[in-house]
Amino acid sequence: MQPLEVMAQEFQAYKNGGGTRISKTLLAAGAVLVLVIFALSGQSPSSGSANTFQPGPPIAALAPPGECAFGEEWSPAPLVDRKKVSDDAVLLRFGLADGRSLGLSTCACLLAQGAGVVRPYTPVSTNALSGAFELLVKVYPEGALSKHLATIPIGSSVNFKHIPKNVKIQYPFPATRIGMIAGGSGVTPFVQALHAILGTPEDKTEVTLLASHRTRADALAVEAFDAWAAASKGRLRAITTLTREPANSAWAGRRGRLDARTLKAFLPPPVPDVLIFVCGPPAMYESLCGPRDDPELTGVLRDLGYSKDQVIKF
Ligand SMILES: Cc1cc2nc3c(=O)[nH]c(=O)nc-3n(C[C@H](O)[C@H](O)[C@H](O)COP(=O)(O)OP(=O)(O)OC[C@H]3O[C@@H](n4cnc5c(N)ncnc54)[C@H](O)[C@@H]3O)c2cc1C
Q1: Atom number, ligand 1, closest to the C-alpha of residue 117
Q2: CATH of domain 177-313
């Protein structure tokens, strides 16, 4: 299925009553606005390169914790579609019985089981999608579950569950300014969070997203975030930095790691009403805020003056 069809299906599902808490009129206006911006910018949500993830307009189809289609026991879902969206990432679509929606709160993730291991994944589709949900998965050459998910035949089942620990900070987020720091597949919770923030027109939260990837070819969701930023009337600023892009490539954006200087230049300052979200590989947590499972704050963000209550480790 093409992204535009997905978007249309999500919108239709919402019109049919699949969404919650937002006005249908405002959603329709938002969808039309983003389509107009795509048209004016010469881009089409469905006509970009095949190597891109394009989620369509932001949609705030919110559900409270406790309504997820998956509970604390494993339950299977069939893989119904798989698309390559970057050099090393796939968008996977899993079916849900009886046309129901995932009913996942924002932000939250699922646990998936396969190849003898269990790993968390953060769905990038919204609850407005009926009968399915989508995962954006970066595939590692030696990765047990990511490789399994990238190679199993369409129609195979994968076991999922959702436990209380998978429920993260909940929308509406208690901040007027949010800095989001993502590394690699760490963009996925921010797709979820931005659907909620930007899909709620009365939400005035200002967001700066700093995403770090190795190369342009493996950078995830760059076009999606750029399109959302362009349509956001200043509510979203999206900055991508590449750490291993060849020096002679056409990339005109930022290069280099997310260090103290870059964070200080782009993040909202460490004042009340500011939150910083971090999601990325272990080395990123180590250097920016300390290990993911350690509630204490260390590293660059502490040195810049943020408190541990301001920094949310996803
Ligand atoms: C809360 C949470 C949500 C997540 N959501 C997503 C998501 O939506 N999409 C997604 O693709 N991933 C997500 N992840 C990461 C995911 O859970 C797995 O860790 C990842 O898919 C690798 O699992 P694997 O079994 O394939 O690799 P493993 O067998 O665990 O690891 C094999 C090798 O792969 C490499 N590797 C594995 N993980 C990483 C990493 N994070 N960064 C760099 N190298 C790595 C290392 O070289 C490692 O030695 C999430 C993680 C967390 C904690």
Answers
A1: 25
A2: 3.40.50.80
* Alpha-carbon span 224 to 228, nearest angstrom: 6
**Polymer length of the chain:** 314
Cβ neighbours of residue 150 closer than 8 Å, sequence gap 6 or more? 82, 90, 137, 139
**Is there an atom of ligand 1 within 6 Å of 185 CB?**
yes
Q: Is CATH 1.10.10.10 the right assignment for the domain spanning 3-166?
A: no
Ligand 1 in reach of 142 Cβ (< 6 A): yes
User: Which residues of the chain fall short of a pLDDT of 50?
Assistant: 1-50
The pLDDT value recorded for residue 213 is 96
- pTM of the model as a whole: 0.85
Instruction: Please state the domain extents for the chain.
Output: 3-166, 177-313
Return the pLDDT at 234: 96
Q: Is the CB of 281 under 6 A from ligand 1?
A: yes
